[in-house]
Amino acid sequence: MGATAMTSTNPAHLEYVLRLGDAALIHGQRLSEWCGQAPVLEEDLALANMALDFVGQARMLLSHAGTLEGKGRDEDTLAFLRHEGQYRNPTLCEMPNTDFAHTMIKGFLLGSFNLLMWSRLCGSSDKALAAIAAKSLKEARYHAEHTGDWVIRLGDGTEESHRRAQAALDMLWPYTNELFAANPTDDAAAAAGVGPAWSDLAEDWEKAVLPVLKHATLTVPARTPFQTYGKFGRHSEHLGHLLAVMQHLPRSFPGATW
Amino acid sequence: MERKEWPLWEIFVRSKNGLDHKHCGSVHATDARMALQVARDVYTRRQEGVSIWAVKASDIVASDPDAKPELFDPAEDKIYRHPTFYKLPDEVDHM
Asked: Taking all residues of chain A, what is their mean pLDDT, rounded to a whole number?
């Protein structure tokens, strides 16, 4: 295949792109679960639009990962025909929606991270990845703004919305530890100029996130040693259920089109 | 039970630079920022626009439908107000 020239001999490069692709895919799948379920029609469309942005990013990233791998796996094969332990998304992405506040808090924590990530990846030594980043950055700006506004509206809203937003933050905050945990893949990807070590984004992320949470009158939980390992394929109990729904159709009807 | 609806906003979208903003519908939103965001999500997801105006529906002053006779009927027999009676030079004949 002519694609061999574009494959990467650096396994960390592939792992890094796969992680980005899986993060977008799983977060997008979770958002899509709101379709037809959101509290109001306007937000139903907003959530579906965001879900489609993430699925679009996942398609580009997984296609690119398939090319880097050079074993003939395309975006669909990677998205739908891997097993749970082969997904590289941070655990935070797969956490259940629970309620609207959970989805908005999670969307904001991840969205703020994505915004920093795509800004940095615009300068990637991997030109295809830099192009994906330039497109995704525009989408990420909107996601961070829309979810950030909701965090403030819910946190600084009614007694009930505040209680739910605080519960969501208490629940999800420990999972952000994983985003910034140092690991050899990040070190190698950063050394090759593919993208930043995620731990390098921690400070800027807090600078972006904390003022919004404060404005929302939410209490930021203290950091604990709690660690999750979704990036390394060790997921929570939630991912298997998500994959069962997401993979059902392509596994039951291989090659189905409509 | 009383329903506490979010305020209604009328949405106007400009399809491209140089054209007018056209009314395309309405959304419910808690505040102006949200009105613009959801208008973007509801009305421009197929590249329909380059600019959005959101106007609080309660801020629009509308004519009374019952006042149609006195407001609009008197114009009925004044067809000379249409510029069709004037001979226009060919160059501007597309008015």
From this structure: 95
User: Tens of pLDDT along A114-128?
Assistant: 999 999 999 999 999
Query: For the segment A137-162, what is each residue's pLDDT rounded down to a tens digit?
Result: 999 999 999 999 999 999 999 999 99
pLDDT band at B90 (very low <50, low <70, confident <90, very high): confident
pLDDT at A2: 39
| Inside any domain, residue A258 | no
CATH number at residue A217: 1.20.1260.10
Tell me how far apart the alpha carbons of residues B76 and B66 are, in angstroms, rounded to a whole number: 17
Residue A257 forms part of a structural domain: no
Burial of residue B66, with CB atoms counted within 10 A of its CB: 0-12 exposed, 13-18 middle, 19 or more buried: exposed
Residue B70: domain span: 8-92
Residues of A whose CB is below 8 A from B40: 142
- Total structural domains within chain A: 1
Counting the structural domains of chain B, the total is 1
CATH number of the domain to which B65 belongs: 3.10.20.520
Q: Would you say residue B75 lies in a domain?
A: yes
Q: How far is CA A135 from CA A33, A167, A238, in A?
A: 24, 34, 30
Q: What percent of chain A has pLDDT over 90?
A: 94
Which residue of B31, B33, B38 is in closest CB contact with A42? B38
Yes or no, beta carbons of A42 and B45 under 8 Å apart: no
Min distance A151 CA to chain B CA atoms (Å): 12
- Residue A217 domain boundaries: 2-252
Q: Which of B41, B43, B44, B52 to mutate to probe the A interface, most A CBs <10 Å?
A: B41
Rounded to two decimals, the pTM is 0.90
For residue A196, what pLDDT is reported? Answer: 97
